[in-house]
Design the sequence.
């Protein structure tokens, strides 16, 4: 027979019925093969439902410590029928399912079953328990206790793989039930055990043999685990530092799962890290286990010598994914924490080797850097490229984008000091492809921050953003009579290789010398904060607030700001009222005397 479809089609209804009748006693492998091939035909045959119920009845008689393989064979056949899109379990009476669940759980609780039988039992429970979601009883506590034991105690070797896969599926079934409507027994047990189950599930990534590049059964199990990790509430997880070493796994499946877990956990944890640092005023650093993965930088010689070798590409991806996890630490971290992380990277001198290798790899043989428009510069997903070389290019382009976002000063310094044959191409390539994205992120950050300003904030900033010209105009009103004090921040085409430029647009409050000092200070703050434009705007606002602090209106013109954009700076020694210099001069000239306009005493400057 040429195909499964042809084989199935050749069997008549009577033939299917004959196979069903003999399956309960026939050779196990032969029966399982027929059930897999003819599953749809069996379920559509009147005898199919009867066979399914008979297998349930047989499995309900399973005894702990039974040495007969017949129980395993019938349970495996039952699981073949229960799997698939058809809801076969719903055709079985609920009471019969309850009678099936109890002995299966007792077998697992005995702890002496072969791993294969335990795997089939847990697989059956993952099919049956959803049909019992409205049934109260101890089976919920028992099932989760068994699941916890399996996740903690079973290794990821060849013998344990089927049992771990069955446990992952049972976990998925239980979680799905608790997400919907279910009875109080189930919900109470889940609330009590879920944190432990989440952490046991996450830690099970370390159970698998990661020394071989490809092993299909292991990779299937690990990929199922990765999909479950994507749905774990990340705030429920404890420390995941043991997972860092798995980034160097030879298995791409294990490597990807470890990365998925770290990529979700680390950005979330930075909010708490930032809070702790702010509270204790203590320093923080990147994990040593992670930084150690950056110390051996790959070389183009290594790539050339091992080109086409899967282990080489996996090793290269391990190094680059470690950098990706490094940058995950910057997400959601406060500026002081980011500065600690940047200092840590500088101390270990790991950024320059990355940048050197990056552009050695991205430059083609004729010296032109690859066209990155085919990649999503702002994000990266493992195993979604057409080949390992394309994936490496994508990851390197994305990492360069992150370097400019989070380590702008160090990246700029590398570019300034780098060899001339690379400097020009890097600048042009950055200006054309990367800078517009980085500048857009910076302006979006300013826009988001401006929207969160407290409306009651004294001297709140008014911010106007021009994406086309990459310019930000910030202004602060002083009084109703005067123009607002305002500056502009312009982002050059190769930003941040070239720094943001701060220009004064409307000078109010201060003289020319102090105004220039303000502008230089704001530009310096932006550079010191790795290009953080919000910090520059905050410096501008603080300067304006400081200049206006305690200022009152001029007692002559009744304004805070004079025609020469100064605040009242002359005070009468007698009545203590303040005046603008220009207003006071006009008063002296018009009155032909040097007396105070209010108290009429001779004006003595204080």
Sequence:
């Amino acid at each position: 027979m040429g195909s499964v479809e042809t084989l199935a089609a050749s069997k008549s209804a009577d033939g299917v019925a004959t196979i069903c009748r003999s399956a309960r006693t026939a050779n196990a492998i032969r029966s399982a093969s027929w059930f897999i091939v003819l599953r749809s035909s069996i379920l559509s045959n009147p005898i199919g439902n009867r066979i399914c119920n008979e297998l349930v009845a047989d499995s309900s008689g399973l005894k702990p410590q039974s040495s007969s393989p017949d129980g395993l064979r019938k349970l495996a056949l039952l699981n073949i029928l229960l799997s698939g899109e058809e809801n076969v379990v719903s055709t079985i009476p609920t009471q019969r399912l309850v009678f099936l669940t109890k002995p299966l759980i007792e077998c697992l609780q005995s702890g002496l079953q072969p791993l294969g039988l335990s795997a089939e039992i847990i697989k059956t429970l993952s099919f049956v328990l959803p049909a019992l979601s409205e049934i109260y009883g101890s089976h919920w506590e028992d099932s989760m206790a068994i699941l916890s034991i399996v996740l903690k105690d079973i290794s990821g070797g060849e013998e344990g793989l089927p049992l771990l896969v069955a446990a992952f599926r049972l976990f998925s079934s239980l979680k799905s039930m608790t997400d919907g409507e279910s009875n109080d027994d189930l919900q109470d047990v889940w609330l009590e055990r879920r944190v432990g189950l989440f952490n046991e599930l996450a830690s099970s990534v370390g159970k698998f043999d990661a020394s071989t590049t490809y092993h299909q059964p292991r990779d299937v199990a690990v990929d199922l685990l990765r999909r479950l990790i994507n749905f774990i509430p990340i705030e429920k997880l404890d420390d995941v530092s043991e997972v860092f070493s798995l980034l160097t796994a030879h298995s791409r499946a294990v490597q990807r799962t470890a990365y998925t877990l770290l990529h979700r956990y680390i950005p979330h944890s930075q909010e708490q890290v930032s809070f702790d640092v702010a509270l204790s005023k203590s320093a923080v650093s990147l994990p040593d286990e992670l930084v150690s993965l950056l110390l051996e930088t790959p070389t183009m010689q290594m790539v050339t010598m091992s080109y086409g070798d899967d282990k080489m590409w996996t090793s290269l991806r391990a190094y680059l994914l470690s950098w990706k996890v490094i940058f995950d630490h910057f997400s959601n971290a406060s500026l002081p924490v980011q500065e600690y992380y940047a200092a840590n990277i500088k101390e270990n001198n790991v950024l320059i080797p990355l940048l050197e290798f990056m552009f050695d790899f991205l430059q083609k043989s004729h010296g032109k850097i690859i066209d990155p428009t085919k990649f999503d510069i702002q994000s990266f997903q493992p195993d979604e490229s057409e080949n390992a070389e394309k994936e490496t290019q994508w990851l390197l382009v994305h990492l360069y984008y992150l370097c400019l976002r989070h380590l702008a000063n160090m990246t700029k310094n590398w570019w300034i000091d780098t060899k001339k044959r690379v400097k020009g191409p890097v600048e042009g390539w950055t200006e054309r492809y990367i800078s517009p994205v980085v500048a857009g992120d910076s302006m979006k950050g300013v826009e988001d921050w401006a929207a969160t300003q407290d409306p009651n904030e004294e001297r709140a900033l008014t911010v106007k953003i021009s994406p086309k010209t990459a310019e930000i105009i910030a202004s602060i009103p002083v009084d109703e009579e005067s123009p607002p004090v305002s500056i502009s921040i312009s982002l050059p085409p190769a930003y941040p290789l070239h720094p943001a430029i701060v220009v004064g647009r409307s000078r109010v409050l201060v003289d020319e010398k102090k105004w220039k000092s303000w502008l230089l200070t704001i530009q310096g703050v932006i550079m010191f904060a790795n290009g953080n434009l919000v910090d520059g705007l905050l410096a501008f606002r603080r300067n304006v607030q400081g200049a206006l602090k305690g200022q009152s209106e001029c007692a002559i013109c009744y304004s805070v700001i004079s025609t020469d954009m100064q605040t009242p700076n002359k005070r009468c020694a007698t009545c203590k009222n303040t005046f603008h210099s220009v207003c006071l001069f006009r008063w002296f000239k018009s009155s032909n005397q040097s007396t105070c306009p209010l108290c009429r005493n001779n004006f003595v400057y204080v």
Remarks:
- Confidence is low (pLDDT under 50) at residues 1-9.
- The chain has 24 helices and six strands.
